[in-house]
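Why do we care about 3D structure at all? Because function follows from shape, and shape follows, mostly, from sequence. That is the central idea of this module. The next example makes it concrete: a single protein chain, its amino acid sequence, and then its structure expressed as tokens.
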Amino acid sequence: MSIQVLLTADNHLDPPAVMYGPRRFERKMDFLRCFEATVKYALKNRPDLFLVAGDLFDHVQPRNPTRTRVMDCFRALYEKGIKVFLIGGHHDTPRSREQGSSPISIYGSSKYVTYFQDSSQPTSATIQVQGHSVMISGISYNPTIAWNSDPLQDIKITPSADINIFMLHYPIRGFKGYYGEEPTVQPKSIPEGIQLVAAGHLHRHQKSVIRGVNVVYPGSTERVRFLEEGEEKGFVWIELDKKGMVSLDFIKTPARELRTFEFRIPREGNINEILKEELLKLKNPELVLRVKFKGSVDVKQLSTYRRSEIQSFAHNKFFNLVFDESEMQIRKPEAIQPLPRTTPLKELRRYFQKQLEKADEEEKGLLLEALKMCEQRLQEAGAW
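And the structure:
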């Protein structure tokens, strides 16, 4: 016999979404819609376990409407007999006493879910599923450990059931994703003898086998940033037995599309009018489009670019329009070279010298006399 596991992570519910301006609440709903689609799939297909591997929320103070909707989801899963287990991630784990407790705590206090709150040592629960004893262990993200440490280095897990699952929320060396200055699990620290490591933190869905253990990142359920624009988003359905993973299916969620359009700045013509023509070709009211400017432009040509006009033009043609001008180079006009240092007397003599070069003998005498008189007048006036 085998058990069925639905694994999700990095749902990032209730993000600030300030860059979306008046549509930020619609953007917040995108994240909730994808999570609720995950729950709806579970209610329909009845997995034995529903695992959330961290970052259920985007921060430690989500709004009450979102908290309430999540409680409704967990209650619905509980009423269908689906066991829910959660750990905290680096977004929804408090980093100081001032931030209080994790928003997940309220669900752990209910009867609907099991929340592994401890971030220093794994917490375990053993249940009976389909005639098997199943041990689920989890450790929440620890914001206090050193960035260059291995969070599992001194942690031991002793598998004691027929099927053993370990939940964590850290990057694991060897998987694709952004590795900043943060604790990273080394492959040698993956506990042996378990059937599944259910991992969160990396937003791309990926899997591997390390030391004979199946390690799975389900990825995020909604696209959080433009680095994820080409990735499919969703959750995974895993079948496990005593030997390990029998099968894995990736189920997509209705994530909003993010796309980047590279706009080559024209050498001639009105930038705004040319950009408008290109945007009409990409028109999609559900699309978040980033316009990335490429190339250089002089000051005169730059005067034909007005961002506010483009934003007004794009209203209702896109869900949101984002401008990336970081690679736009402005060509400055050549600097005017300063004139050589001179004096009034030097300039006077230079003028008369040019006239003398063109004059005949009779004119030269008059020019020399004129030069002498002009020099005298300038000197009397204080010229040098």
